[in-house]
């Protein structure tokens, strides 16, 4: 029963992990950039939702849409100004540009909002559904549902719309895409904006059961990378599966190991996955 | 790369540059004599030297072989913890602890080489990042040995070289300078040795290097072992200097892993002088920002260093040394110079 409970919790939390990791996969798939700053956009989304709750009285589940829009716009600008110039640069420049961006965003937030932990109050915060002996926490369930909806929306956008098709074409072969009349720069901008916007959305929907502070992203960095590497970097559906796997590993390992070592298990899984199937991961390109 | 012309260039340049570096080191050694031995500036310059040395150690794998490690904090922290734990529990001299720390860091590097050396670029960076974080988690949770999140204090002792313990920062300045000179010599020696050419081959094209018979795994392994040992040794000097540390201070991503890579990148990745230039710019600037605002605006100094990193990468990804070279050529004076020779 305890195991079943852990599986349910892991699934619900992991679904959100998966959705916040989609952007990382999407950006890699489309521009071949690993965005080390990705988790900072999650933090931004959480802050937007917190302010929307504090000043507009908006539930974070609705504030999430505002988070998406604002962070999407910001992401497009970041892509245009910072990321575009280094797309053809050596990998070391790409890595450290996004690492620099992470440091800048985290500390800008620290300067603007202070180091306090902020939380929201919602009517469903501490309530849960009971199914037999299993407790399904309402905030977990709602966050999971919202995350999966947004993930499905992005999937539909990529698979079913002309712009989405153009974006996938850009991922597969930028040269051919350009020849077909696709504005690949616009696709890059959109992909980056959608990627970080989706993460912001995910950050907003988990706010009812978490607190936000400028460094909240650091808890998610390795977690997101584990999710996308497990699922295959560049694959959108893979990121969701990987995220759920990460959530389940986390909550099941908490049954066996003390809570502090929870993340250690994750790091080990991450390094092993990278080590054991680097080729398989590298070869899977394209969103 | 014109591999054939390189040896000639190096030998022709080695002598005057060796003299130049020796003169620089000698000049650096007398600087603190003119400064207040207890003072702020000796402290800042000591930190600068420590980070220059760390950047140089990172440069051995990051610069020569282009293996972008984001987990050097692992070695730094292992050195720091090993020597301090031995000092606290057995009264062992940090000089001996330093060798124990180096040996442990070599073991860590050996273990990590197995899963990480097949990885390239982003993947290598990700795996090393996770490795450093894993050690931070261990240091935080293994409370019986490491003191956990509370951290460790280096026991207070009277001034003594043998115990690497001084009340004033000045002696640490010289120890850090010695460390920088040593690591720089090692870097230089590796760079101009056969190993250096193998590493450069790895950097240019790993598969091609394999094809012409370079054992790339072994070359990378040697470089990373040397780099790990040097990083651990400097970690010992660092904590003796700062007296106190916790897991985040020595295993942190932003506090250590990124900062020492940053120093090398801002200065000029893969160049001998790059980490020194980088540390001279980054560390005092960060301290000045902190001092100017007396730490009132939390996050500003880190914000500044992140911004410098972004600016350098956008303007000249090869670092300030290359930028100076470019500017000088732009001004039409002596074409090519130390700035270019580092490439």
Automatic annotation (TrEMBL), chain A:
Membrane spanning stretches: 6-29, 36-56, 62-83, 95-115, 140-158, 190-210, 222-248, 255-276
Membrane topology of this protein: Multi-pass membrane protein
InterPro entries linked to this entry: ABC_transp_permease, BCAA_transport_permease
Subcellular location: Cell membrane
UniProt key word S-adenosyl-L-methionine: no
Protein name: Amino acid/amide ABC transporter membrane protein 1, HAAT family
Native species: Tistlia consotensis USBA 355
Biological processes annotated in GO: amino acid transport
Domain of life: Bacteria
Alphabetical keyword list: Amino-acid transport, Cell membrane, Membrane, Transmembrane, Transmembrane helix, Transport
UniProt GO MF annotations: transmembrane transporter activity
GO CC entries: plasma membrane
TrEMBL record, chain B:
Residue ranges of the TM segments: 18-35, 41-61, 73-92, 98-117, 172-190, 221-245, 257-282, 302-324
Topology in the lipid bilayer: Multi-pass membrane protein
Domain of life: Bacteria
Metal-binding among keywords: no
GO CC field: plasma membrane
Family matches, as Pfam families: BPD_transp_2
Location(s), subcellular: Cell membrane
One GO MF term: branched-chain amino acid transmembrane transporter activity
Main localisation: membrane
Protein name: Amino acid/amide ABC transporter membrane protein 2, HAAT family
Organism this protein belongs to: Tistlia consotensis USBA 355
């Amino acid at each position: 029963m305890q195991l079943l409970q852990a599986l349910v919790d892991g699934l619900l939390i992991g679904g959100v992990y998966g959705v916040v990791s989609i952007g990382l996969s999407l950006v890699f798939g489309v521009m071949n950039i690993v965005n080390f700053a990705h988790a900072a956009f999650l933090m931004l989304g959480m802050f937007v939702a917190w302010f929307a709750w504090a000043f507009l009285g908006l539930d974070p589940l609705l504030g999430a849409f505002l988070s998406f829009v604002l962070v999407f716009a910001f992401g497009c600008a970041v892509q245009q100004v910072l990321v575009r110039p280094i797309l053809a640069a050596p990998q070391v420049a790409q890595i450290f540009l996004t690492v620099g961006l992470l440091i800048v965003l985290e500390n800008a937030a620290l300067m603007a909002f202070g180091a306090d932990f902020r939380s929201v109050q919602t009517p469903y915060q501490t309530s849960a559904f009971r199914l037999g002996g299993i407790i399904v926490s309402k905030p977990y369930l709602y966050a999971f549902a919202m995350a999966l909806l947004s993930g499905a929306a992005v999937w539909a956008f990529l698979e079913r719309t002309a712009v989405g098709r153009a974006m996938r074409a850009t991922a597969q072969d930028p040269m051919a895409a350009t020849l077909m009349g696709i504005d690949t720069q616009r696709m890059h901008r959109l992909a980056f904006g959608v990627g970080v916007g989706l993460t912001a959305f995910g950050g907003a929907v988990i706010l009812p059961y978490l607190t936000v502070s400028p460094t909240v992203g650091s808890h998610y960095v390795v977690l997101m990378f584990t999710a996308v590497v497990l699922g295959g970097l560049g694959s959108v559906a893979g990121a969701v599966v990987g995220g759920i796997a990460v959530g389940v590993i986390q909550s099941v390992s908490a049954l066996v190991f003390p809570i502090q070592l929870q993340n250690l298990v994750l790091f080990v899984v991450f390094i092993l996955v990278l080590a054991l199937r680097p080729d398989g991961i590298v070869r899977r390109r394209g969103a | 790369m014109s591999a054939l012309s390189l040896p000639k260039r190096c030998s022709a340049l080695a002598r005057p540059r060796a003299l130049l570096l020796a003169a620089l080191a000698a000049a650096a050694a007398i600087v603190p004599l003119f400064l207040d031995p207890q003072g702020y500036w000796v402290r800042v310059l000591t930190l600068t030297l420590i980070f220059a040395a760390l950047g140089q150690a990172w440069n051995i794998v990051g610069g020569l072989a282009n293996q972008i490690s984001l987990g050097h904090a692992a070695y730094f922290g292992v050195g720091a913890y090993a020597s301090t734990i031995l000092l606290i529990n057995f009264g062992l001299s940090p000089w001996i602890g330093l060798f124990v720390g180096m040996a442990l860091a070599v073991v860590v590097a050996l273990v990590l080489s197995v899963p990480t050396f097949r990885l390239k670029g982003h993947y290598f960076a990700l795996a090393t990042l996770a490795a450093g974080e894993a050690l931070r988690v261990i240091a935080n949770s293994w409370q019986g040995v490491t003191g956990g999140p509370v951290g460790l204090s280096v026991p207070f002792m009277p001034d003594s070289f043998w115990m690497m313990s001084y009340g004033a920062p000045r002696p640490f300045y010289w120890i850090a300078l010695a460390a920088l000179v040593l690591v720089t010599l090692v870097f230089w020696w590796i760079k101009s040795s056969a190993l250096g050419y193998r590493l450069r081959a790895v950097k240019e094209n790993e598969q091609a290097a394999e094809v012409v018979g370079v054992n790339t795994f072994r070359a990378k392994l040697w470089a990373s072992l040397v780099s790990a040992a040097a990083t651990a040794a400097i970690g010992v000097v660092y904590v003796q200097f700062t007296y106190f540390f916790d897991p985040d201070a020595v295993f942190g991503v932003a506090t250590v892993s990124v900062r020492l890579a940053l120093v090398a990148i801002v200065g000029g990745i893969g160049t001998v002088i790059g980490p020194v230039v980088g540390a001279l710019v980054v560390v005092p600037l960060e301290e000045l920002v902190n001092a100017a605002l007396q730490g009132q605006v939390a996050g500003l100094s880190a914000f500044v260093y992140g911004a410098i990193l972004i600016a350098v990468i956008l303007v000249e990804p090869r670092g300030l040394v290359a930028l100076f070279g470019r500017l000088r050529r732009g001004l039409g004076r002596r074409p090519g110079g130390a700035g270019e020779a580092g490439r």
